[in-house]
Amino acid sequence: MMFVAITTLPAQEVRECDETQVYADSMAIDTTRSEVVGQSWEQSLRTNLDRLVSSDMFKTSQVGMMVYDLTADSVLYAHRERQLLRPASTMKVITAVTAIDCLGGAHQFNTDLCYTGKVENNTLTGDIYCVGGFDPRFNSDDMRAFVESIRKMGVDTIRGNIYADKSMKDDNDYGEGWCWDDDNPVLSPLLVSRRDIFVQRFVEKLVDAGIVVESSLGEAVKPANAFCICHRFHTMDQVLMNMLKDSDNLYAEAMFYQIAASTGVRHASAKQARGVIKRLVRKIGLDPDDYSFADGSGLSLYNYVSAELEVAMLRYAYSNGNILLHLKPSMPIAATDGTLRDRMHGSFTNGNVCAKTGTVTGVSSLAGYCTAANGHALAFSIINNGLRHTRNGRAFQDKVCTELCRP
């Protein structure tokens, strides 16, 4: 891998105080570029990116950045690209690429309804098992399908136990390194409308449908001889869309535990997911021991990655048509949708930049793809840490992307 030497030039000021001023400063950069004579587009780009990373903003904060020319297969720009930084939600890019790579684009997020025993005289005498596969999209429509499958059996009375089978993953409800006062999702593999009340809601809907329930509720693993009467699922693309476009943490953690469960271990844990991610990191030519992977969403304070790693993941996805087919359409598009809907409305970036955002306290990040004025496809990662105002990180990233896309 070839890297470009970075030359420090006079600072182009980006003050970390007033966002209007931050954007106003970019006009000076526009003028600077027009005054550069005899430089190629690549040389001019590097000059302007050098000025951006020399900003006074970085006297009190850090940035790691890499831009890779996918068409030319070479590094276009790099600045502290190996610096370990907290990625926030750009961690979801690493999770998504790993998941598509190890599970495939046809993977499903499943929830099953099964029973043991027998049905006689409209009475089911036996046990019912609601088997969770960590489908974050399971909703009231899916629950109605569960109830209807009982009705279609001619059952109007249930005598037995109704169990939640949550054996797909361990019993940790929260991720390692999550802040107690964040809006954290509950990591249960059996959810309905994002809540860990599946069996209770199921019983309520059975009663609403006129079915008499004479059952105790609990948790148990579905036995091998159980009959499955309803199978509900959502697709990889459906989950990716919410996970990346809207930066949904629950969907990212569901994806993370699908990765873990792919190892074949019952009660899968974050440890298994990390192992799969590390194998992919090694496969793409980097040392997984250089990084720290704690969760799938980027909520954890224990995640530490680099811009170089994120770009390597984006490069791997770009070189693998099946991964890119599922990844890129799920990423936010500048000035169009998702978490980039209100950003980068300029003519060069609008509809051009396709990237995952990341924001937690003190951290702002952006990683994805764009097309340069020369038609070359670019992959980039920008990770800002140590920010008092994350809006200034976003402003910096938007200006970098404008430089990448403009003539």
Spell the H/E element sequence.
HHEEHEEEEHEHEEHHHHHEEEH
Summed up, the helix count is 11
* Number of E-type strands: 12
Class derived from helix and strand content = alpha+beta
Low-confidence stretches: 1-35
Strand content: 15-25%
**Termini separation:** 26 Å
- Look at the structure and give the mean pLDDT: 92
Radius of gyration: 25 Å
**Biggest sheet, in brief?**
7 strands, mixed
Describe this structure in words.
- This protein is of the alpha+beta class.
- It has helices spanning 19-35, 41-53, 91-103, 140-152, 198-208, 236-245, 249-261, 270-283, 307-319, 321-327, 390-405, and strands at 62-69, 74-79, 108-115, 118-120, 123-125, 128-132, 157-165, 212-219, 227-235, 354-360, 363-371, 377-385.
- The chain is elongated and about 90 Å long.
- The two termini are 26 Å apart.
- Mean pLDDT is 92; it is low at 1-35.
SSE order and pairing:
Blueprint: H1 19-35, H2 41-53, E1 62-69, E2 74-79, H3 91-103, E3 108-115, E4 118-120, E5 123-125, E6 128-132, H4 140-152, E7 157-165, H5 198-208, E8 212-219, E9 227-235, H6 236-245, H7 249-261, H8 270-283, H9 307-319, H10 321-327, E10 354-360, E11 363-371, E12 377-385, H11 390-405
Parallel strand pairs: 5-7, 6-7, 7-8
Antiparallel strand pairs: 1-2, 1-12, 3-6, 3-9, 4-5, 10-11, 11-12
Helix pairs in contact: 1-11, 2-11, 3-6, 3-7, 3-9, 3-10, 4-5, 6-7, 7-8
